[in-house]
Amino acid sequence: MSVDGLRRAARGAVSGMPREFWWLWTSTLVNRLGAFVATFMALYLTLDRGYSASYAGLVASLHGLGGVISSLGAGVMADRLGRRPTMLIAQVSTALSVAVLGFMENPVAIAGVAFVVGMASNASRPAVQAMMADIVPAKDRVRAFSLNYWAINLGFAVSSTGAGFIAEYSYRIGFLVEALLTLCCAAVVFLKVPESRPDRAPVASASGGRAAGPAGIRLTDVLRDGRFMGVVGLSFLVALITQQGYVGLPVAMGADGLTSSDFGTAIAVNGLLIVVLQIPLSRFIESRDPRQLLIVSTLFLGYGFGLTAFAGSVAAYALTVCVWTLGEIVNAPTQSGLVVKLSPAQGRGRYQGVYTMSWSVAGLVAPLMSGVVIDNWGASWLWMACALLGTATTLGYWLLMRDLSAVAEQGDRVVETGDAAVRATAAEPSARSDAGDEQPQPQIQPQPQPQA
Fold this sequence. Notes:
mainly alpha; about 80% helix; Growth Hormone, Chain: A; single chain
């Protein structure tokens, strides 16, 4: 595709979205621009505070465990209290806990506050995903999730670079900067993002479940939704594979005699490709059969990591990163769109909470998986396991989605009327409060930054 073709594709990818979506997108970008704790926690504890690597691993595990727990609770809150209050509570709590973490001295206190930070920082995700599904028409949702995923990766790439310079001066300043930017994110939500939770909308599970009233979707109903839980299980496998790019890959490259800067060079390809290709490819993704996209993208993920077994140089590792990154670019928005199709409108918070939990659990399991496999059998077996997991996940998508198209279309017709009413209600206060404001536009062609 030529440069002009990419420019036209990018322009088409960002057109036609509601104003409320762009404010939500802006809050996501601001939030990710301040991502400091998750990136530099291990270096802060080992280099700045002098703790052992095992203690740093314990703190990272507690941070991840907090995210696992909050996923379910935040999903319930998003349905009961609303998307907007849940995001505000989560973001303000994140800002306060991150600021406090920067001043903790006692190792027990550090571990405890890190657990709270993990809970708070993960709590807004189900609400954000549910609100995005509320305010964006069904035909544009995959594109919306693609744009949001692009904002997450762009923000993380920029923050990783900037935070590295801040860390050389003062880690504590890094914590305070993240707290400040998280408060800015909350301010954007408070001032510009209206509530979108449906009050009275037809409720019918797109996977064929029974209809229910406004209060009829419970967490147990989500867990009994067999098709959706199948998607959650496959999502866990996808996340388990993807996480190896950040836990298994640096260890394997180190075993080959490569340095941390070599790993940074290789993994930077991931962020670069996402920033450059995610938006231009979003139109292509939304117009294709999700079953085919999920099957092909999972093969790219699994076998992209499988090819790592044959890598021995920085260039070879970077090439494998290119392969699995292409799978990631296609899989992430397509899978998010599938979750929305399977989620009743009034239960989207709970459904998104369970889906988010699959990624949080994978974040806990992936380091253990890589460590055990590499220590006992070597890195080549880890990459072979990724290829086998990719194959199993591909087969799972093929079996699960054989009759999904007709079911999902039926579910879309059931909830679309209610969604339209939700979007109309959300747009009214926004139109009054934003009179004269210009719609914030995303940066379509940013200067790519390496992703740490």
